[in-house]
Amino acid sequence: DSGVTQTPKHLITATGQRVTLRCSPRSGDLSVYWYQQSLDQGLQFLIQYYNGEERAKGNILERFSAQQFPDLHSELNLSSLELGDSALYFCASSVPAGGNEQFFGPGTRLTVL
Amino acid sequence: KNEVEQSPQNLTAQEGEFITINCSYSVGISALHWLQQHPGGGIVSLFMLSSGKKKHGRLIATINIQEKHSSLHITASHPRDSAVYICAGFSGSARQLTFGSGTQLTVLP
Questions:
Q1: A76: β partners
Q2: Residue range B22-58, pLDDT digits in tens
Q3: Among A23, A86, A111, B66, which one has the highest count of C-beta atoms within 10 angstroms of its own C-beta?
Q4: Cβ contact B48–A45 (<8 Å)
Q5: pLDDT, tens digit, for every residue of A4-13?
Q6: Is the C-alpha dihedral spanning A105, A111, B2, B5 positive or negative?
Q7: B35 interaction partners in chain A (CB closer than 8 Å)
């Protein structure tokens, strides 16, 4: 158990809908990272927050957004969902801002029908 | 653009064999992570290296900065080592991890 929690574990929804994925980092970790893993693209970095502020942005679509709250949990919002958004979404956390070991949550499997 | 290439894509071994997975990376990557992804999907961080060598149990990771190459070795492999192994390079300038495509390892009893 990495100490990172993600909810929900599974999510099934329809095209055009909006969902929110939640992540609680390990106690004491200030950085949260979001990743997408799809069958055709592999693992891709989406976005990083550090102590409430956006720190780095990767291949995140405009339909997706994230935030980190004062208690350091983070949410990833996915809107106007398309079939191609079906993937595993992982969050990870680390103590400092980057470049150090990251601890991954169990992931949320999103299926868009 | 930061790139990470892994080989082989698939690897099948007999229990007890010594296993090596290779990772090459581009200029701009300052640290290399090795991850293990279980069949259920969970990801575990194995090592983070910026130089030298690290060992944990039967797993050894090495990195050669001049050649921009890292290897993950598994000694005395066991069926429970069967998983996907992923290397990922961290770029300080881009502040993000770039992932290799993964190596599917199957260890047969």
A1: A21, A66
A2: 999 998 888 999 999 998 889 999 999 999 999 999 9
A3: A23
A4: no
A5: 999 999 999 9
A6: positive
A7: 104
